Amino acid sequence: SITSTLTTLLCLSAPGGVSLVVPQSNINATVAQNILLSVEYSCRGVATVEWKHVSSWGTTKIVEWKSGNYVNISMVYKDRVTTFENGSIQLLNVGMRDAGYYFITVTEEYGTNTYGTIIVNVYEIIYEDLHFVAVLFAFLAAVSAILICFMWLCNKSLHLFQKKRAHKLTASTTEEIELETIEC
User: Fold this and answer.
1) What region, left, alpha or beta, does residue 99 occupy, with left being phi > 0 and alpha being psi -120 to 50 degrees?
2) Where in the numbering of this chain does the Natural killer cell receptor 2B4 immunoglobulin domain appear (predicted)?
3) Per residue in 1-46, pLDDT tens?
């Protein structure tokens, strides 16, 4: 167990410099998801691993660590990054600003280094947009129903008013005819 840990920390299994494998170079994620930026490196000696994020908002150093010695996480990522001994990092609760290029540099103690890149695309959850559209549609349908009921009531009131007026006109015309016949 101690021997295997030392072997992992010192990268004794890889003769001839540093090698790095990036199994997935393009990652699609949605907002609030956790993502794993998976890599696997091997080297002759003790390695230093550094991750940087480059986007339209600029370049940010995420984390740097030396096998078995220290881990230096940027304040911006302090509670959002988990490091793994194989060089991978997990980024928690991604947002739109996390989209961009992630560069890893693995430097061996003898000065040999290698680089890798992972592109991360972050998308907003479409269900929230659909929810908004559904609520808006329900609201517009309710307003339409209320307006239709209001128009129906106005129409009924108008018909009742016209009937009463027509009845009054008929009654007043009848009275005039009766008055005319009496005067003659």
Assistant:
1) beta
2) 47-114
3) 332 333 333 444 444 589 999 999 999 999 999 999 999 999 888 8
For residues 106, 109, 113, 119, the Cα torsion angle rounded to the nearest 10 degrees is: 10
Q: Which two tokens stand for residue 70?
A: 């220290």
Distant-in-sequence contacts of 91-97, Cβ < 8 A, 24+ apart:
91/34, 91/35, 91/36, 91/37, 92/34, 93/32, 93/33, 93/34, 94/29, 94/31, 94/32, 94/33, 94/34, 94/35, 94/120, 94/122, 95/31, 95/32, 95/122, 96/31, 96/122, 96/124, 97/55, 97/57
